[in-house]
Amino acid sequence: MSNYKTIDIHAHILPEETIGLLQKTAPSLALRIQPLDESSGILEIAGITQKPFPREAWDLEQRFRDMDQSGVDIQLLSNTPQTVLYEQEASLGAECAEIQNDQIASLVGKYPDRFRGLATLPMQAPEMAARELRRAMGSGGLLGFHLASNIAGRNLDDPGLEPVWEAAQELGAFVLVHPFGIAAADRLKSYYLKNLIGNPLDTTIAAASLIFGGVIERHPAITFCFAHGGGFTPYQAGRFIHGWNVRPEPKQFLKRGPAESLGRIYYDTILHSDAMLQLLIGAVGASRVMLGSDYPFDMGYYEGVRQVRSLSIPESDQALILGKTAKALLRMAS
């Protein structure tokens, strides 16, 4: 039996109580879940439709059963990507973020042996977002925030976002960067390419923006973790470095080259392939890869604990990936 707890750093939630509060507070979002079958529904919010939307997003009993079955001790909860609401009016976005953050904090308080939590922020209003981050990580006890890969089409190196980075640096926040509102959507309508290619593409744009915009270099106390194995980022790191060496454009805001920033970012395990996960670990090291599931969505991967334990890597590396690195980064007590 392992002497550490397994920690899934990438798991989403939208509880029934949260749904009710958002419907009451923000009727303009037209939030509703229509039944689809016994195991899922159709989520509609602010013109976005998610089909199917799994009942595990709000069914805690099923979530606990799934965690036990998959060998996950603790989930780091974040809101569902559909509820980031960056395109909404700022005060409404801030109010909805506060509701979701308080709900996640309440779940952590109720089930401290199973959950930790990340905030969502009204990133369209950076000063409001910084205040909410301080509140959520202060009195709310959350450990950082869940961040979409762009802010309604703006890249994450946008100078207007600096108040958020300053607050995250001050607090030593953990930031899970997750794709949403993808680039090239018009060319990715067929074959579910919006997810198969679009999600890792937008994650890569987010990582490159944070690297070449100097955000990671200027804020060493922030832990950035990129979903779905980092998109294409780990596998194009050499191209980033070469480009900075031979071209003037990448040097505009990045003083010391991309290798240093690349060496400070983390990735989850969601690659749907033992060989590709092994490649990622070999490329960046086991200490910068953490267990993720993308629970409860159908593009998630729920065999991560068993997968990592089956890899041809030392048990000490398995332990880092499955929980020890997350525990240290999130400053979690035993």
Give an overview of the whole structure:
This protein has 334 residues and is an alpha/beta fold. The chain has a single domain (7-13, 59-329), classed as TIM Barrel. It contains 13 helices and eleven strands. It has helices at 16-25, 60-70, 90-110, 126-137, 162-171, 193-196, 198-212, 215-218, 237-246, 258-262, 274-284, 304-310, 315-329; strands spanning 7-13, 32-37, 40-45, 48-54, 74-79, 115-117, 144-148, 174-178, 223-226, 266-268, 289-290. A five-stranded parallel β-sheet has the order 7-8-9-10-11. Helix 1 (16-25) packs antiparallel against helix 3 (90-110), helix 3 packs parallel to helix 4 (126-137) and helix 4 packs parallel to helix 5. The relative contact order is 0.13. The model has no long low-confidence stretch (mean pLDDT 97).
Brief rundown of the structure:
The radius of gyration is 19 Å and the shape is globular. It has helices spanning 16-25, 60-70, 90-110, 126-137, 162-171, 193-196, 198-212, 215-218, 237-246, 258-262, 274-284, 304-310, 315-329, and strands at 7-13, 32-37, 40-45, 48-54, 74-79, 115-117, 144-148, 174-178, 223-226, 266-268, 289-290.
